[in-house]
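Ops channel
N.P.: pipeline sanity check, posting one input/output pair.
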């Protein structure tokens, strides 16, 4: 998640006459679950990618020493950036949201060395997750690869620490709208069909506050987003528009790796007064076609 800052980017402000309540697709209780497991299980992630399950958490995937080392590498990295826009965060690497395609791909190429640097002296936990998932998908003849545009690769992941100061460190949003940004026409993620889950993957390296994941059982479609003026951003939905929508609130702890269908509205709770940081490595994944899953940040 990130924020548009250029004139090419859409406005994140809802129109004056946005409806009181957000409408969208509501799922049954068999789907709308975020089970937690003690051991990584790529079969569950496969279920999320295929739309059989909303999401899943794997507790303690990253040991304390590794998490601490990656977090330290993040905070001391010379390429660490502070965002002061409507999605305040510290960021290492880049993201496609709100950028023109050329700008994003240039940044992705430049970010590669910085991203490798976060694993100095530590397990490469991102590769571990992707290799386990690739092995699982491979048994079904499905390839897993980074998204691309011609010969240029997308950013494989981004590391960030949210620092919003209201009720949420990251406001309610959906991850589907960003596949429709006009400034990225032709990027292969734009070919992902509307009914295909867009799966957010997060690895939590530190969280010394609240920072729970709030996950609402509503998936806005294009018309629902349009009613709030959020066609290309999916961000931010006003909290009052989610009144009465059923919601899961799930603790996120250092060491967790978790996946969820980002087409449903979600947010990150504020850390709470006096608390420090909640830092994650993150990317999005989706079936591009029946034989290929792609990922990008
Ligand atoms: O940090 C999280 O748990 C969720 C992040 C998120 O919603 C996003 O990047 O769009």
């Amino acid at each position: 998640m990130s924020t548009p800052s250029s004139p090419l980017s859409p406005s994140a402000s809802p129109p004056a006459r946005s409806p009181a309540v957000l409408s969208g697709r509501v799922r049954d209780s068999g789907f709308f679950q975020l089970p937690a497991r003690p051991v990584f299980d790529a079969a569950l992630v496969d279920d999320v990618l295929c739309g059989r399950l909303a999401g899943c958490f794997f507790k303690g995937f990253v040991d304390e020493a590794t998490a601490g080392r990656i977090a330290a590498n993040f905070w001391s990295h010379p390429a660490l950036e502070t965002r002061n826009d409507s999605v305040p965060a510290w960021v290492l690497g880049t993201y496609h949201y709100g950028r023109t395609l050329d700008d994003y791909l240039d940044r992705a190429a430049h970010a590669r060395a910085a991203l490798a640097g976060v694993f100095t002296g530590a397990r490469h936990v991102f590769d571990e997750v992707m290799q386990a998932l690739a092995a699982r998908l491979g048994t079904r003849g499905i390839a897993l690869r980074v998204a691309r545009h011609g010969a240029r690769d997308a950013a494989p992941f981004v590391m960030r620490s949210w620092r919003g100061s209201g009720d949420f460190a990251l406001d309610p949003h959906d991850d589907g709208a960003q596949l429709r940004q006009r400034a990225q026409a032709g990027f292969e993620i734009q070919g992902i069909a509307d009914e295909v889950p867009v799966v957010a993957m997060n690895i939590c390296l530190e969280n010394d506050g609240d920072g729970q994941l709030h996950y609402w059982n509503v998936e806005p479609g294009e018309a629902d987003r349009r009613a709030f003026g959020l066609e290309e951003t999916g961000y931010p939905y006003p909290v009052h528009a989610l009144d009465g929508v059923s919601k899961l609130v799930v603790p996120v702890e250092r060491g967790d790796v978790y996946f969820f269908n980002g087409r449903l509205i979600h947010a990150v709770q504020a850390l709470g007064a006096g608390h420090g940081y909640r830092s994650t490595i993150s990317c999005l994944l989706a079936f591009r076609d029946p034989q290929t899953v792609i990922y990008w940040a």
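N.P.: looks fine end to end. Residues 42-296 form a domain with the Jelly Rolls fold (CATH 2.60.120.620).
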